[in-house]
Specification:
By secondary structure, this protein is mainly α. The chain has one domain.
């Protein structure tokens, strides 16, 4: 006879698995999203560090897509393709975030302290309660919901639009990887010169891909998720459907966050004003003379 405690534990696990299998995949994902949002909020309040969602940004969409694909039994080639693509996205972005110290104890996005000083403690905590923890978590789930659409039994077979989506996603992935690497090499070289007390002639990167766009990595990040949405279009046959909320909200979020990023860059580097006049913000374009 098995110990009663062990038997109770096994039955509980079995019950949870049955509940998971019987729950609509999107409902289960939203429950997980709510739990994670609450966790991020509690940890941010207890630690005073508001980059909790930042640490999960490149991880959660991968898990959500895998969840939707697994519940669909990976039965459709489109689901397998989407899972591979989002895994590549998450692996690269996680690596880039880690090498910049994003997972170090106390590491925090420099814009959160700036917003704290502008808003004050009360209004910032309201922002944390509504946007920083819950809204961003919901957005990360919304980015993954094209996989939920693709897991539908009525999903159309692979077609030309899937090929276009794959090629576009790959192109944006490479573009963001190149831009992030250029930025990383530039910053390492700049900090190295400062450590040696050498002259630093260029305070910000304006060459390579950054010659044609002030934020080529931001442009490619948005492009990848619009390409990912195309898989939902290919699966459902509907060009405008509710999963478009993910990339649309992400695009709006980038508008606001980039405003703050550029404002801080302009404050730090007066020459940035001229860079703004000559170089496109997102879309890569020839530099103005």
């Amino acid at each position: 006879m098995r110990p009663s405690g062990r038997a109770w534990g096994e039955s509980e696990v079995t019950g949870l698995l049955e509940l998971y299998r019987s729950t609509d995949p999107l409902t289960a994902a939203f429950v997980a999203c709510a739990v994670l949002a609450a966790w991020c909020w509690v940890v941010s309040v207890l630690t005073g560090n508001y980059s909790q969602v930042d640490r999960l940004w490149s991880i959660l969409p991968v898990l959500y897509v895998f969840h939707f694909a697994a519940r669909g039994g990976f039965a459709h080639p489109r689901l397998v393709l989407m899972t591979v693509l989002v895994l590549l996205w998450g692996a690269r972005l996680t690596y880039n975030f880690a090498r910049k110290g994003g997972y170090r104890a106390g590491g925090e996005d420099y814009r959160w302290p700036e917003l704290q000083s502008r808003l004050g403690p009360v209004r910032f905590q309201l922002l944390n309660l509504t946007f920083v923890a819950p809204f961003q978590n919901v957005l990360l789930l919304l980015l993954a919901v094209p996989a939920y659409v693709a897991a539908n039994e009525t999903a159309r077979p692979l077609g030309a639009l899937d090929l276009i989506a794959t090629l576009a996603f790959a192109l944006f992935w490479v573009g963001e990887a190149v831009a992030d690497e250029q930025q990383w090499q530039f910053q390492c070289a700049k900090h190295g010169r400062r450590a040696r007390r050498d002259e630093v002639r260029e305070e910000f990167l304006a060459s390579g891909l950054f010659r044609y766009s002030r934020h080529p990595n931001f442009f490619c990040e948005q492009g990848m998720w619009w390409a990912f949405y195309l898989f939902a279009v290919a699966a459902s046959g509907r060009w405008l459907d509710w999963p478009v909320a993910g990339p649309a909200i992400l695009t709006l979020l980038f508008q606001g966050s980039t405003n703050l990023t550029e404002e801080l860059s302009l404050r730090k580097y007066p020459a940035y004003a001229e860079y703004q006049k000559t170089t496109s913000r997102f879309l890569p374009l020839p530099r103005k003379r």
